[in-house]
Amino acid sequence: MEGAPTENPEPLWWSDPLIIRAKDLCVAVSEFGKAGKLDLSASWRLDELRLRLAQGMAKLGDATHGVIAGNESRDPAFLVALLKRSLNKYHSALETLNGIDDPIVPITTAQAWRTEILGIRQEIIDKLSRFRKME
Question: Measuring CA to CA, how many Å separate 118 from each of 20, 35, 77, 78, 134?
């Protein structure tokens, strides 16, 4: 139909700064893996890291989409539980990153990723605190 309004195909939460930050980190890890000439074990470790980050981002989106859209109807205690699941995935991502050898990922890159994961983690903790106050 000509002149009919088109719907934005992306949900509103996808444009949230924290989700964008998490998405950008997933992309950075993925692009690093694609650009490098890595052996199978190194590639597997980066895939595991990317998977943990993607899972954390998905759980974060699940926990916050209603809040971001302004139509949240779920109990704050439930949102806290969802955010804890996201936080656990970011803790797993840190463990995975710490297990990747220096020759695979340069120290400066690993440190930048670690800093970003810790920043995302802190924002999740801040959200947890806000939701707990609502309980």
Answer: 15, 25, 24, 23, 25
pLDDT tens-place string over residues 59-115:
999 999 898 888 889 999 999 999 999 999 999 999 999 988 767 888 999 999 999
Give me the numbers of helices (H) and strands (E) for the chain, helices first please. Answer: 4, 0
Q: Round to whole Å and give the CA distance between 18 and 96.
A: 21
Residue 127 C-beta-side C-alpha neighbours within 13 Å: 26
Q: CB of 62 within 8 A of CB of 84?
A: no
> In angstroms, what CA-CA distances link 12 with 53, 59, 61, 70, 117?
20, 16, 10, 10, 23
Locate 79 and state its tokens: 């949102």
Q: Is 93 helix (H, G, I), strand (E, B) or coil?
A: helix
**Residue 124: which of 12, 18, 29 has the closest Cα?**
18
Q: pTM, whole model, 2 decimals?
A: 0.85
